[in-house]
Amino acid sequence: MAIGGEQIIEIQIPQQKIFTGAPFPAAVSPSPATATAVPLSATQSIKTHKPYLESLLHQSGAVLLRNFPLHTASHFNDLVEAFGYEELPYVGGAAPRTNVVGRVFTANESPPDQKIPFHHEMAQVPEFPSKLFFFCEVEPRVGGETPIVLSHVVYERMNEKYPEFVERLEKHGLLYVRVLGEGDDPSSPIGRGWKSTFLTDDKAVAEERAAKLGMKLEWLEDGVKSIMGPIPAVKYDEMRKRKIWFNSMVAAYTGWEDERNDPVKAVTFGDGEPLPAEIIYDCLNILEEESVAIPWRKGDVLLLDNWAVLHSRRPFDPPRRVLASLVK
Question: Are residues 264 and 303 in the same domain?
Fold first, then answer.
């Protein structure tokens, strides 16, 4: 695809899968003939090729940008800005994160030996990002991929195998329960304390912000229990006219564990009834089977449509630094 000067070309990578004729994820790179070592050229290139990149994102659900001259968090921030999307403040999410520069945050900072299960970003709250950007500033020594999976494929397989369970999910939705401490607990994948979750140290303001999300708070001696829902577990993607498996059910049931939280109690049907463990674990198998995991290279950017794709993180040997930005 060439428009005005620099070219962007589609490339193939070994891990891609093909769904309905489209590669997943789509992958693009500057054409060798027009590539430069100047980070500014990457942002100009994005502005020029935005309609093309958005059409790839719509078709595939995920786009990997590889071999662009991006080396630092600031370069990544410039690239995110070049797309011109409105930023989504990270209110109500569970993961501990640190602001790095501008609109750029660290990705989930849970310990490297822990796997982060598949989820749509902030699926457990009503206001979630439409798109996510990830950037590899330091590539992992071993592991640390960010596996991705198409949500509608998971819905189709689950509905085919467990129609009664899916019908119940669609009827009742899910209830998410999480106990938050005061401060962040970096040893936990869901260790964000209530002060950073609600961006305040005032309980009244936290109550107000929780209420806006439809979340109830029950204050404890050393923290707060948050109750979210019932909230839909299956949504309809209007853009693509299909149902999607839009929830954090498997992530909560298999991964929301720390000294305050029991994962089995972290998520239930919307009517409070417990979820069947064997179906949850089989859903985890389906997610793994259908997923694609591309090893990170320094400078890679992965753009995900949060309506189309669930993501996770594999354990890794440090160092690894992957940054993130969320957009409305």
Answer: no
Q: Single out the residue of 230, 296, 309 nearest to residue 24, CA to CA.
A: 309
The 10 Å Cβ neighbour count of residue 51 is 10
Whole-model pTM?
0.91
In a domain, 119, yes or no: yes
Whether residue 111 is found in the same domain as residue 217: no
- Any residues with CB less than 8 A from the CB of 238 and at least 6 apart, and which? none
pLDDT (tens place) for every residue of the chain, 328 residues total:
333 346 899 999 999 999 989 999 999 999 887 767 777 778 888 899 999 999 999 999 999 999 999 999 999 999 999 999 999 875 555 555 688 999 999 887 778 998 989 999 988 888 899 999 999 999 999 999 999 999 999 999 999 999 999 999 999 999 999 999 999 988 888 888 999 999 899 999 999 999 998 999 999 999 999 999 999 999 999 999 999 999 999 999 998 999 999 999 999 999 999 999 999 999 999 999 999 999 999 999 999 999 999 999 999 999 999 999 999 9
On whether both 129 and 155 belong to a single domain, the answer is no
* In-domain check, residue 2: no
Lookup: tokens for 60:
């595939």
Q: Does some domain include residue 3?
A: no
